Amino acid sequence: MKGYRNYFLNKLLWLLITFFFAFILNFTLPRLMPGDPVAAITARVAQGMSNSTGMKEVYERYAEQFGTNKPILEQFILYVKNVARGNFGASFSQFPRPVGDILKTSIIWTVALQFPAIIVGWLIGNTLGALAAYQKRGFDKLLLPTSIFISSLPAFGMAVIMMTIFGVNLKWFPISGGYGFDLIPSLSWSFVWSVIVHYQLPFWSIVLITIGGQAIGMRSMSIYELNADYVKYSRFLGIKDRKIVGYVFRNAMLPQITGLALSIGTMVGGTLMAEIIFSYPGLGFTLLSGIKGQDYPLISAVTLIITVMVLSANFIIEILYGIIDPRVKAAQTD
Amino acid sequence: MKKLLYVVSVLVIVSMVLAACAAPTATPAPAQSTEAPEAPAQPTEAPAVEEPAQPTEAPVAEEPADPNALPREQTLYYNGLQWSSVVCWNPYSSNCNNAIAIGQNDNSRVPMFETPYLYNMMDGKQYPLLADGPYAWNDAMTEITFKLNAAAKWSDGTPVTADDVAYTWASNIKYNTQAGVANKDYIDTIIAKDPQTVVIKAKLGEDGKAFNPLQVNAYLSSYYVIQKAWTQKLEERTGGDAAAFLADVAEDVVYSGPYHKYFSDDTKVVYIRDDNYWGQDASMWGKLPVPKYLAHMFYKDNAAGTTAMKAGEVDVSQQFNSNVQDLWLKDNLPISTYLAEAPYGVGAQLPTVYYNLASNGLDQVAVRKAIAIAIDYDTIIANAMTNQSATFTQVPRSLMNPTPGEQALFDHDAVKDLQWAGKDIEGAKKLLDDAGIVDSNGDGWREYNGKNLHYTATCPEGWSDWQAAVEVVAAAGKKIGIDIVTAYPDWGVYQTVVTNWPLPEEGYDLFMFWNDGAGPTQPWGRIRKFMSSEFAETTNNWNGNMGGYKNPTADELIKKIPSLTDPAELKAVYTELVEIYLTDVPSFSLMYKPQLFHTVNESVWTNFPHEGDGTNPAVPPLILLDGWGIAGLYNLELVD
Question: Is residue A90 within 8 Å of residue A297, measured between CB atoms?
């Protein structure tokens, strides 16, 4: 038990160190972008204003309000204090809207799109990969090149192809938005159905990309395991094929589970392309708007969420590995 | 495992088939009529004309079958105005990102909040909205008086009073709003003489008259009247803190216009008509605006907006649609623009290239003029603007936009010899040769002060029409021995650099910027921003003259204009300014851009403003929202 505790504490320490540096980078990197976000706000406000002293007043007022005229260290301390209280501040690009409010509304769309897409893609990909490894012959010959082709497509490429074929040409699915242009969100059947219909293209564009990579990985792992000594020995002992296949896939699954956890951890950033192409109202689209508008608080908040999710996913995997496979723990604590 | 595969496969197929079977959320019915309305449009009534009261006609009385759906035949859809979520409903704030509800400028946006007058860019006049009859200056030219329409009411049913107007101004000053900051140099105070009479006292110049009567006139059609009682409520809850006052979301705001908030999220914003709107009184419009809802989806870019318009999901498009004529000529869609032929819209703005006069050689008129006359403007207009601009042969360059009102303000013959239409390579070479700016070392580039003339022409990255134009500028330079390269920094960087002096030594020698369109202070306001030295070499300069041009004669003339009343004298001054501008060439325009893009889809609605539609006063092509353009909302008809 002591070994587990040391292993856990070691991992926790590294998690905190990584988080500390990631947090500093989250704050610093957006602010290193060239340009001045307050100037952009002044531009909006300055519409119709022709006196230069007035412009200066407006600029200085916003610089004061956002604290961009303060030293960077002072800004950082203020940021840490606010974040500790769960306050990400007001968005620059959507001022005076609080960043928390923006995240709250968009994260639901992102999770609803990406989480099922990752799970479905992972399930289908692994099933197909395992089947290809086990059945070989024709199925494998078809699946492998197809998977390689699909997984090498960039996410935006797949999204554009799907949009062109199923949205623009066949007109089966709408090509933009999270629900119908003529609806107001409610729990009505027409709204729910509209969400489902709008969901299809971004969903499948993510699923297809996921399937390819997962299938290739699972196929390789399964082939490796199928040729392992324990499989041969099991066959020699006369154990049923069905039973052996069960062992094989369980062993082949371990790296795939790592992949799944990491995919879930990075899902916020992963939806960016699908959300942008399909004008889907999620966090990825919000992040892009934030970057365009040099919206430091918004960028920092979104990247912080990504950081926390990735670090948490990694940490959980490490801990689970330590429990599932004692060799990992042993190797790490030696 | 096989079973799992079968189950998943079946689920996948069923899901796709089911979803595909559904129509993609109420695709609009095919166009019933693809013809632009040929019958003369109902003339828009001049608001001040007294007529017997007419019964209020709610154009479409039926309630929607699905309360969560926006009936297509009751909703007017827009694109190109709003790209992300609406943030607030506070008319004192300039940061609400609420494009349909809030926009105070030369042609103010008035569906929710209203101004005393409406500016009409087609005839340059201001028509009463909350006001009753025309405004009047006193003989001493120190104050303006106007009456409010007795029928004007707030959404809570209380009358709009002179006290509201005065309190709005006082609040604008107290809380340093954009309206206050922009006008405090010109307006001293606004007082309520009686509940219906407003007096605006101008800041006075040395001669004891209004320092700038033009700006005071413009205030009347540019800035909203906001309810005093609601303002006091806002003050109470924000405790007099200016930052909190301006940052308040104002969901409870009281308004006087015909539309207000219905729904808003991260994908769209919808406004609903107030069927108790005061403007249905016979003294104003005599009826309600026709669409019950105004809606705007947020598209990721122009291409997505165009796709939606092609699909019939957008009725009014305020975005640049490249080769707009293809929509009706090739795609056979019931889409049209204000003018049936190129330039399709009424040019009002002059996107302009500024010279950084601190760059080597650009302080020389010969170099500036040589570059300007060598440029192939026809190519810019054909490629960058896809012919959505008049050419400089059709409307020779000056400081004025192509509207007849502005064109009449200067003597065309007097400046004829100074104007150029472009592509004059030989003329440009001669200018440079005559000035002694030649290629003395044979490397192909001319020199000045012993250094090659090497410049960077720039505009923001992704502004594709401007980028295409800048490429043509660079090509012209090379033809006359001036090395012009292009660079496209990110907008965030670009705006920070060009609005502050000094400009960098490299990278911003020729740079593009916009300027004022049509408005009650134009063309004076635009000329001031092109040429006045008050903006030269300043920081936070979003006005103009960013290249640092100074000319005392021009300054004097610009200062003189606002108080001139004699048309002949005004024309002489404007002509002289055009002469100076075309002689000194501190900057030059590349095209004429409409005030707003105004493309309409007549799949569902018809009777949009078009040239020669018979409206009187003519309704301007301002997407049925801005200034007198809102009159278009009262003329719409369903296609059926």
Answer: yes
Is residue B526 within 8 Å of B516, Cβ to Cβ?
yes
Is the CB of residue A57 less than 8 Å away from at least one CB of chain B?
yes
A70 lies within 8 A of chain B by CB = no
- The mean pLDDT value of chain B amounts to 88
- A56, A91, A181: best mutation site toward chain B, by most B Cβ within 10 Å? A181
Query: Has residue B62 got a pLDDT over 80?
Result: no
DSSP class of B411:
-
Helix, strand, or coil (residue B135): strand
Residues B339/B387, Cβ–Cβ less than 8 Å: no
Token pair for B592: 């004429």
**In the prediction, which pLDDT does A47 show?**
60
pTM: 0.82
Query: What are the b/e assignments for A67-77, b being 16+ CB within 10 Å?
Result: ebeeeeeebbe
Report chain A residues whose CB lies below 8 A from the CB of B462: none
The pLDDT of residue B422: 94
Residue B576: which of B465, B455, B447, B414 has the closest Cα?
B414
Q: Which structure tokens are listed for B340?
A: 């049936």
Alpha-carbon gap, residue B292 to B280, rounded angstroms:
14
Inter-chain CB proximity A48 and B104 less than 8 Å: yes
Cβ neighbours of B293 in A, within 8 Å: none
Q: Can you read off the two tokens belonging to residue B503? A: 């400009």
How far apart CA B164 and CA B172 sit, in angstroms, is 12
ipTM: 0.76
Strands (E), B362-403: none
**Which residue from B177, B173, B580, B581 is spatially nearest to B354, judged by alpha carbons?**
B581
Question: In b/e form, how buried is each residue of A166-197, taking b as 16+ CB within 10 angstroms?
Answer: bbeeeebbbbbbbbbbbbbbeeeebbebbbeb
Q: Do B19 and A186 touch (CB under 8 A)?
A: no
> Tokens 């709610």 sit at which residue?
B58
3-state secondary structure at position B354: strand
Partner-chain contact A56 B263, CB within 8 Å: no
Put simply, the answer to whether A184 touches B68 (Cβ < 8 Å) is: yes
User: Would you call B542 and A42 a contact, using CB atoms and an 8 Å cutoff?
Assistant: yes
